[in-house]
Design goal:
This protein has 346 residues and is of the alpha/beta class. Helices cover 44% and strands 19% of the residues.
């Protein structure tokens, strides 16, 4: 009977009881198993040493054309140049980041499928029952970028400051609205945090993406919008929308006249979002180190920093240990916001 190409056969010896050769057969089988195991281990080591030798996929839960997608594609382009191999971006939006995250953790842990992971993932852990927890199910590689959000209105609106908007919301409860992109994203939670911290009776309306959100704002369907500067920049420069405040600790150099939320009178309100590279939990050290080193060099390039800035992002390589610490602290923070907002897991 043919047992397949990997079966070790020990021929019977003529005129002898097969049982008398049991120990010899066992030794042969053990030797074959050890040889196969050693060969497999050597193959893994060799593959890791040659990393990368083929196309790398970066899975992102964000829609193509979003501000974060833009900077991811800049990074992928530069990594492709360094590795002399394709580094491609695969957009997999939907259900927060759950679908994309499952693609990452279920992929072979060889470094050829990695994820674009960030604040949205810290949010998803408390929002979705099927969410992947990067703290326990993924391996941090390197932090890539950070960005703040802007609170903006249509330029035709009567609101000239956040304080004026809040005063109106208190005078006319349940009449004003804040628009955000997809439910469960960090800017959606930023709006909920604002609502809770200011104790105002307003409606937070999540749209299906940044494009739909921008259209609603330009049509004056929504009173206030929270979004990243990169996604709002064209409308700001065209004079179509009016920025009221930025959510970072300091003002944006690109918008020096726009106050921070703290300066605008919203105490202790600082929200920044961030992006990073993570891989499957069992991703080899060699692949992690190679990607981290290459990304760190790319992010240190002044030309890359300038391109990130144009999209409203700060490029900075964050080591894996600090990245992990940030993921843990942000996950705990947004869990509190979600609990206070009374949002149940979906």
């Amino acid at each position: 009977m043919d047992h397949g190409p990997w079966t070790c056969r020990v021929p019977a010896v003529a005129g002898q009881d097969l049982k008398s050769h049991g120990s010899g057969r066992a030794a042969a089988v053990l030797a074959a198993a050890l040889w196969l195991g050693s060969s497999a281990a050597l193959s893994v080591v060799a593959a890791a040493a040659d990393y990368p030798s083929r196309t790398i996929r970066i899975i992102t839960p964000l829609a193509a054309g979003s501000a974060s997608d833009i900077v991811l594609r800049i990074l992928a382009e530069k990594l492709s140049d360094r590795f002399k191999l394709p580094v491609i971006v695969q957009n997999q939006p939907g259900a927060g980041s759950v679908a994309a995250d499952h693609t990452i953790v279920n992929a072979p842990a060889d470094g050829y499928t990695i994820g674009w992971i960030g604040n949205n993932n810290a949010v998803s852990v408390s929002l979705f029952k099927d969410a992947v927890d990067p703290r326990t199910e993924m391996r941090p590689i390197v932090g890539v970028s950070e960005f703040a959000y802007l609170f903006v209105t249509n330029s035709a609106s009567p609101y000239k400051s956040i304080k004026q908007w809040i005063d109106t919301a208190r005078a006319k409860p349940d009449t004003l609205t804040i628009g955000t992109s997809t439910a469960g994203t960090s800017n959606h939670l930023a709006a909920l945090l604002f609502k809770a911290s200011e104790k105002v009776a307003i409606t937070v309306v999540p749209y299906r993406g940044p494009s739909e959100l921008s259209v609603a704002l330009l049509r004056n369907d929504i009173d206030l919008v929270v979004n990243a500067y990169g996604g709002l920049r064209p409308q700001i420069e065209a004079g179509q929308i009016r920025p009221l405040a930025v959510t970072s600790a300091n003002r944006l150099p690109e918008l020096p006249d726009v106050p921070t939320m703290t300066e605008a009178g919203v105490a202790d309100y600082i929200v920044t979002s961030w992006n990073s590279l993570y891989g499957p939990k069992a991703m080899p050290d060699q692949a992690v180190e190679t990607l981290k080193r290459a990304a760190t060099e790319v992010l240190g390039d002044p030309a890359v920093k300038a391109r990130f800035k144009e999209a409203g992002f700060d490029a900075a390589a964050l080591p894996a240990d600090l990245l992990d610490a940030r993921m843990r602290s942000e996950t705990e923070r947004w869990a509190r916001v979600i609990a206070e907002a009374g949002i149940e897991k979906q």
